TrEMBL record:
Naturally occurring in which organism (per UniProt): Fusicatenibacter faecihominis
Superkingdom as given in the UniProt entry: Bacteria
Domain Transglutaminase-like: 214-273
Record protein name field: Transglutaminase-like domain-containing protein
Pfam families: Transglut_core
InterPro entries for the chain: Papain-like_cys_pep_sf, Transglutaminase-like
Length: 308
């Protein structure tokens, strides 16, 4: 994926489009995930690397001890330089990740769910040249299909100490449903974070969002909006996917959310060029708004390439 083209998009429009659909609802584990939202509480899942199942060593150690939780953890040694990890799962999508910071454990998700994954690791040796470190096939059986979208990872990075986590708990305190929680978080993010055109024009190709930095500067690009919103939702027990792809012809990022009464909701918020707007969730569910149905029905409007 061309990150540079993605982030240089000069306009912030179409951050997310909320349309509740009755299709695409994951059944396995749905009871646990849909009942996990508790008003005013956080449910931050903490990835563990206990060393019971590892591959590699120097310069890259991968901990596969908790693949059933939907993640693995990579740590590069001090002289590793730059590492590229590629993961091909049952969806046949090649997910590419990079580690550039030594001795800092990094979490990577099994976003394609249960199934067989081919994991490959490469070390940068000069400019854009990489040497193969190892390759291994991993069979993953998730205990809950929602886990990859509840845990933090390299792209949706948060912890119990993140300011965004405490803010999400505050914003949703006293609310009684996940839809209300989504609305409260959406309204805060869209009212307080402005689009950073300068950042969009200068951001590096391997940019990773920093959710607390976004809250502190109150600026961001669409990647920051999506990562921050997904992290806040995950921290209160609402499964959220960070999606990367295209909206029409524009490189873009957005989120999909799991709503208890409906299932997976694709494209949750719309920016129409003048204002942010949360769509009425009954429109798509009842089919009463023809313009919404026409937009969703056109596959050219949203094309997903990666889920994080």
């Amino acid at each position: 994926m061309n990150h540079r083209q993605f982030f240089r998009s000069p306009v912030p429009f179409l951050f997310l489009i909320l349309v509740l659909t009755l299709s695409g609802c994951s059944k396995k584990g749905s009871s646990e995930a849909s009942s996990s939202f508790t008003p005013g509480e956080t449910r931050v899942l903490v990835p563990q690397a206990d060393g019971s199942n590892t591959i590699g060593g120097d310069p890259l150690l991968l901990d596969l001890s908790h693949t059933d939780q939907g993640y693995f953890i990579g740590t590069m040694s001090g002289d590793g330089g730059k590492i590229n990890i590629q993961l091909i799962g049952p969806d046949n999508v090649t997910y590419k990740y990079f580690i550039e910071e030594a001795d800092s454990p990094t979490v990577f998700p099994f976003t394609a769910g249960s199934g067989s994954y081919t994991l490959m690791a490469f070390q940068n040796i000069s400019e854009d040249q990489y040497a193969s470190l190892f390759s291994q096939v991993i069979d993953v059986e998730l205990t809950n299909d929602f886990l990859p979208f509840l845990y933090p990872n390299q792209y949706v990075n948060f912890s119990q100490d993140s300011k965004a986590v405490s803010l999400a708990a505050q914003l949703t305190s006293g609310l009684t449903s996940d839809v209300e929680a989504l609305t409260a978080i959406y309204e805060y993010v869209t009212a307080n974070i402005t689009y950073d055109n300068e950042k969009a024009a200068t951001v590096s190709g391997n940019y990773l969002p920093d959710i607390d930095e976004t809250l502190s500067t109150k600026k961001g690009i669409c990647f920051d909006y999506a990562s921050l919103t997904a992290a806040m939702l995950r921290s209160i027990g609402i499964p959220a996917k960070l999606a990367i792809g295209y909206s029409a012809s524009v490189r873009h990022a957005w989120i999909d959310v799991y709503i208890q009464s409906v299932g997976w909701v694709e494209r949750a918020v719309e920016f129409n060029g003048d204002e942010w707007k949360l769509m009425d969730p009954t429109f798509a569910a009842t089919g009463t708004d023809e313009s919404i149905q026409e937009y969703i029905g056109d596959g050219d409007n949203y094309i997903t390439e990666y889920i994080r």
